[in-house]
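Hello,

Our lab assistant flagged a job as stuck in the queue for most of the afternoon. It eventually completed. Since we weren't sure the result was trustworthy after the delay, we are filing this so someone can double-check. Below is the sequence as submitted and the structure that was eventually returned. Let us know if re-running is recommended.
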Amino acid sequence: MTARNSGEREGILRWKAGGRALGIALVIGLIGSGRGGAEDFSGRAILSDQTYSSGDIGTDVFDQIYELRFGRRVSDPFTYLLFFRGEQSNGHSTVADETSTLRFTQLEPHAEATYTLPTIQLFGRWDLVDSRSKISGSPDDRRQLEHIFSTFSFQPDRLPGFRFLFQRDHASSDTSALDQTRTYLQGSLDFRWKNLSATATARRSEFEDAENGLTRKSDGVQGSLVFQDTLLNNRLTVFANALASFDRETDTTRSRGASGETPVPIFEALETIDDTPEDSRGDAGIPAPALIDGNLRVPTVIDLGPTGASFQNIAIDLRRFTGLDTFRIDIRDSGGNVVPRGEPVDFTVYTSTDGIRWTPVAGARTTFLAPESLYEVTFPKTVARLFKVVSFDLAPTDARVTEIRAFFHDEFGPATTRTSDIKLG
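-- returned structure --
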């Protein structure tokens, strides 16, 4: 095998008004390709030094980023990708006569594999974000976020198709008393005959909050029938849809009380840019299934970074009236990497009864969680079917929305078991 390599070097010098800021960055890239394009290797290193001062406030930070990417097509149906990103920042900040030092390290390995045939599709992905930070005068902090996602589908001709989905997320933090694991399994059968399509789904989810002593298990089934036809030489369209579901949820706490978090399924998401979010008659939004597909890594077109725009509208339909108090909006850069800085983006929450007129929810608060690369939007618990979040201001670095997730929280007493049934139909 032969390979050709090329290196790229670029020096960047930036000045900023309002105080004095100087940033110098050196970018070094390496690109390699195998025979016939079946194998690709690339990497880059970004070394930057940034100094800022204004009055009695100043910072001086040296940042290093290293990336390696190796992908290979083993055969026509089978490909895999390995990726690694490491970042380290060292520096200090001064406020008046007080100086504090900081050190931040983050490691992000990633692996995925795809096997595709006309009737069989198999996909698996693993992500890990391991960050460690140390600030003088504060305890050391280590945070981890591990994500596993896989799907398998089999769609034969003129026979029912099958799809299986598995997802597991684990988040932990030393200083935030965080140790949570979520597991989700789903299997579905679908069959189409002429103008009629039918789908049956079974699902199971488990949530373990080790720090707060809460365990939640949920089992559910769902069925749907859809009929669609055209009559009178395509002048009349007939459409009918029937949907029914049943879920049983069991919450158990140990010797002390706990605050329990419940994920809420989102059936449809839409996106648009609209600076009049209280009235959607002019722009109801475009369906965006990628916002609710469970893939936290692949960025969508929703740009919250310097090249984006304010008033990004993300609307969701729960298909039933449910109380919510939290949204999590996952973001990555255009290459699928976590975003270390997300401020000062702020989100406003709206509700609607018809998807046209929207009412803001008072008390919404936005927090950027860097180790998990997401915005958490909290607000007083509100019952509605249609919700919308609208962004204001822009992040200082490349930031694209990958997913939106909805939750509500409950308080449980000590040594409690509670079972809830949720019916839709």
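-- support follow-up --
The delay was a queue issue, not a problem with the job. The result is valid. The CA atoms of residues 196 and 311 lie 40 Å apart. The first strand starts at residue 4 and ends at 16.
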